[in-house]
Write a structure and sequence with these properties.
Chain lengths: 161, 96
């Protein structure tokens, strides 16, 4: 049983965008029928089915997911999972070459940066910088702030008065 | 309290000693004394400056110049001091 939450996450992961989930199940079934027929003829259209499924999953929006009922979720996900099982029944691709990293080394995307002005004060200080693709804000260590440089209150600062 | 500073006129000397990022950029101050890094650059600035992080080659690339990833303790080791000296000499030569 696939839960709403799991499916919502799946669609979020796939960058969902459009608002017509009810129509999707019809198209899924049509695509699946084409696939079954092609298999019966001795030809396989895995790619066509995969691209149709993926395309429609891409087109689902989170907002749409709030409004459709559970049976539609289960139907779509059931088809998707079933198809995936078929695709991977011949075995899965093993990705192991990337797992032999040297944990002790812990390589990071870092460098150093010379800052010449902070808060309109000429400073010239050397900072160790991390390029963090997961960060949402630029962060600076308080302790590296040169003497005489006064920070200002942030946008989310809470007044204690 | 949430404090921040405006940073201007930055240079990434490992990439280029003569390229200046005028800014300003807004940085939030953090009190984490255990952090190895003085400044953490976020995704928005990485995109603005078009700095690419390549895990496949373990390099950071900016303006077609690339710098290798470094061990997490690089800045506290002698490796950094040596590299910095080399770079200062290189920068001096570049300006000449």
């Amino acid at each position: 049983m696939v839960t709403n939450r799991m499916f919502a996450q799946l669609c979020l992961d796939l960058n969902a965008k459009v608002d017509d989930p009810a129509a999707l199940i019809v198209e899924f079934k049509a695509a699946r029928a084409v696939k079954m027929a092609s298999e019966a003829n001795g030809t396989y259209l895995y790619d066509a089915f995969t691209s149709t499924t993926t395309h429609h999953l891409h087109n689902l929006s989170f907002h749409a997911l709030q409004e459709i009922n559970t049976t539609v979720y289960d139907d779509i996900v059931g088809l998707y999972v079933q198809h995936s099982d078929e695709v991977y029944s011949g075995g899965v691709q093993n990705i192991s070459h990337g797992l032999s990293f040297d944990k002790a080394l812990q390589l990071r995307a870092t460098s150093h940066l010379i800052v010449q002005t902070i808060q309109n004060t000429r400073v010239n200080c050397l900072l160790h910088v991390l390029f963090d693709s997961g960060a949402d804000k630029i962060m600076m260590k308080h302790s590296v702030l040169p003497p005489g440089v006064n920070p200002s209150l942030g946008r989310n600062a809470v007044s204690l008065v | 309290l949430d404090k921040e500073v405006l940073i201007k006129d930055m240079i990434l000397p490992e990439f280029s000693a003569t390229t200046r990022i005028s800014g300003p950029i807004r940085a939030i101050l953090m009190d984490n004394v255990e952090s190895t890094y003085d400044l953490i650059i976020d995704m928005d600035l990485l995109q603005t400056l078009q700095i690419d992080i390549y895990n496949s080659s373990k390099t950071v690339v900016w303006n077609q110049l690339q710098v290798l990833f470094k061990p997490h303790d690089y800045f506290s080791s002698n490796l950094f001091q040596t590299a910095l000296q080399d770079q200062m000499v290189g920068s001096f030569d570049e300006r000449l």
